Amino acid sequence: MTSVLANTRFSVLDRSRTREGRATAEAPRDTVALARRIEALGYHRFWVAEHHGVPGVAGSAPTVLAAAVAAATSTIRVGTGGVMLPNHRSLVVAEQFGVLESLFPGRVDMGLGRSVGFTDGIRRALGKDKKDTEDFAERVGELLGWFTGDQDRYPGVHALPAEGLRPAPFVLAMGEGADIAAAAGLPVVVGDLRGRDRMLRAVERYRAGFRPSPWAPRPYVVVAGTVAVAASEEEARRLLVPESWSMARSRTRGVFPPLAPAGRIEGLPMTAKERELYESGLRGHVRGTEEQVAGALAAVIGESGADEVLVTTSTYDRDALLDSYTRLARIAGLTAPAR
What we know:
It is built from 13 helices and eleven strands. The chain is an alpha/beta fold. The chain has one domain: Luciferase-like domain (TIM Barrel). α4 (90-103) links the parallel β4 (83-84) and β5 (108-113). α6 packs parallel to α7 (176-184), α7 packs parallel to α8 (196-209) and α9 (233-253) packs across α11.
């Protein structure tokens, strides 16, 4: 274990992926069960995500799921990676996080993103379009104003119980989003680890433009990506097979299928395009044995100066997934929280 890993926080984001042969409704329950195990391993945060109308992904209501996770755990920080502000009125988001912070004081993170639905049909169902992402900076400012009582767009209106509370805000960002986080004086989450050069440029822009704020006195950088750890390099690669195949199918068929067993996927016939996307999806992630992953993560942290690593790994085999997180906790020197 290197000292740079021991001095870095490690956290987990789970997207509530569905699995072949299991009901969609089981996926959120799997997420809550995983959160308990992640807390026991000593990770710093556990986040959930927002996806709408995506077959294969059951994480659609992040503040609701975050409440279930927080209720099932006791020490780990809980939040969203993230709530997509263009999909919601900022007053409602503030109220939701105000309730969370009231119920679980000092444990709530408010990760914020700027995406809208990934197809025209979903965007229409949400009553949104791509233009709704253009005023993200203003949306962030308005949201924070509901907590401080400084929003002036709706005089006499207050977000209760949010006003006066301080859930920890984060901006999920690359490129322009990093500039928005910097200008607002907020921590930033930059992904993914596969695009190392782009990630490093975003981190540099963020630090150069950061303005201290009541929310964060200094820059705080979280780098995010897939990490797979196993007893052998081949076993680590196989952990990535289900998600890689799901992504390949989504880009060729327009649908994310549920995660399937790696052994079945490897025997499937694939078109040339599917094979190309599938193989591409297996490359560039941090994967391997404990020694290999420790070295790769130390390099990433050293290059980026990251304060934290947010890991988001999906695979069919839940036991293998937990084993990967257990191995990662070991090489990162995590310790279980006191009870």
